Amino acid sequence: MSQVAFDNVAALAADALVDKDARTWAMLVHLSALIGCVIPFANLIAPIVIWQMKKKESAFVDAHGKEAVNFQLTLLIAVLVCLVLVFVLIGFFLLFAVGIGALVLTIIAGIKANEGQLYRYPVSIRFIK
Questions:
Q1: CA gap 80, 74 in Å, rounded
Q2: CA neighbor of 50 nearest in space, from 18, 85, 24
Q3: How far is the C-alpha of 15 from the C-alpha of 128, rounded, in Å?
Q4: What is the four-CA torsion angle of 114, 116, 122, 126, rounded to 10 degrees?
Q5: What's the CA gap between 56 and 78, in Å, rounded?
Q6: What is the pLDDT of residues 64-123, one digit of tens each?
Q7: Are 70 and 102 in contact (CB under 8 A)?
Q8: Verdict on whether the full-model pTM lies above 0.90
């Protein structure tokens, strides 16, 4: 998402025009990634499914969906790098750090979405704009 488009959605959120339904779906886009703790790859599939279902209904949900999917793709790359580094033993520590960071940032994003605020993950590659 371009900076101008992100600013437009931020202005929309700041004006409190985001209804409760949109805030709930945006929160669910982020928190659905936690299913990946139980089902492999669900951390990527669940946010994509919710985002695709609701992106046309709300620009707010669309913005949060893109953020969530970008973050999950970034996490996938980070985990793959950590798995390679397991062979030099540092990967175990990095996997733990990535897991804790992902959990904390996902919960923060869900809370911000429920409050009607836009949230940009601090360590996320922007694959989808």
A1: 10
A2: 24
A3: 25
A4: 100
A5: 30
A6: 999 999 999 999 999 999 999 999 989 899 999 999 999 999 999 999 999 999 999 998
A7: no
A8: no
